[in-house]
Amino acid sequence: MLYHHAARGLHYSGIAALARKLLARKGCFILNFHGVNREYYPNLPPLAQTGFTVAEFEAILSWLQKRFTFLTPEEALSGQRSGVLLTFDDGKQNNFTNARPLLEKYNAPAIFFISTQPVLEPDNWLHFVKTRALTGWDSLEEIPDDVAADLYRGLTAEQVRLCAEHPLITIAAHTVSHPLLTDCDDKSLAVEVNESKRILEDLGGKRVDWFAYPNGVYNRRVMEAVRSAGYKKAFAVISRRLGDEPFEITRVDISFPHPYYLDAKLCGLFLKPFTGFAEKSGL
Asked: Strands 52-53 and 36-37, how do they pair?
């Protein structure tokens, strides 16, 4: 609540807009999204339907378009241009059905970080997705198919293939089952990071070079496992600054669609834009 009051003050005073012109004119913000639902379901508790609605997500894209350039992953990571890069975690089916048409409308490139368990096992949703769904339903079996597809299901294998072929979408890995990788033993850790890469490459027919840590949680052991699996870059939320910049890329988690929130979040006062590290590590 305190943050929202402060954000409103920065927005309506014009300080956020001025700060953005001064502090965020070089570099990019890498934004982190999750689900984009067709609609809001008033009979379900909020926890059972996390994510933006289509209308909310379009409002965010419209706001961004007026202030930033939508960047490809290569442009963002090399520091070639200033703007924003969109990323989506978990691999929800609604990323394809609901977010993709809006990405096309606004010509906005995006990375889809996909957990592969629900791709191969459509009825075996990720553990936290099941938990959230059960805050609104007595059992998973009673959820109507259209609601399950809109809120909970992962991408299908065919949708992964279509995403890999799409000119605006880059598919990337987000483990198999979305565990906290720091809690995994070495064997489980290797399976999570290696198998997700292999599965996505088999389905999409393209190399998968990028990875996102579930919940943004990682340590040196996890970073080394990701590097050993053959990834070139890894994305966190907040960098722990462990000294391996290409494997702890900071992203901005977007939680609300309000203009004042976006204005404050992306003004450069609280988080500096990412300026690339191409000279140090290449792409």
From this structure: parallel
Query: Could you give the CA distance from residue 40 to residue 22 in angstroms, rounded to a whole number?
Result: 37
Query: CA 219 to CA 29: how far, in whole Å?
Result: 23
The DSSP code for 249 is B
- Please count the CA atoms within 13 angstroms of the CA of 282 that sit on its side-chain side: 2
Q: Which two tokens stand for residue 113?
A: 């970080």
User: How far, in Å, are 3, 9, 82, 140, 267 from residue 261 at the CA level?
Assistant: 9, 10, 21, 34, 10
* Close Cβ partners of 87 (under 8 Å, ≥ 6 residues apart): 30, 31, 32, 33, 110, 111, 112, 113, 212, 235, 251
**pLDDT score recorded for residue 3:** 67
Separation in Å, CA 213 to CA 55, 144, 223, 239, 253 = 28, 31, 9, 11, 13
| Tally of residues, the chain | 283
Local structure of residue 238 (DSSP, 8 states): S
Q: Is the model's pTM score more than 0.85?
A: yes
Any idea where the domains of the chain sit in the sequence? 2-20+28-274
The fold for domain 2-20+28-274 equals TIM Barrel (3.20.20)
First-residue to last-residue Cα distance in the chain: 40
Closest CA to 129 of 181, 99, 91, 172: 91
Give the phi and the psi of residue 173 in degrees, each rounded to 5: -95, 150
* C-alpha span between 190 and 192 (Å, rounded): 6
10-residue mean pLDDT series, the chain (283 residues): 78 89 90 97 94 98 97 92 96 98 98 98 96 96 97 98 98 98 98 98 98 98 98 96 94 96 94 74 46
pLDDT computed for residue 2 by the predictor: 60
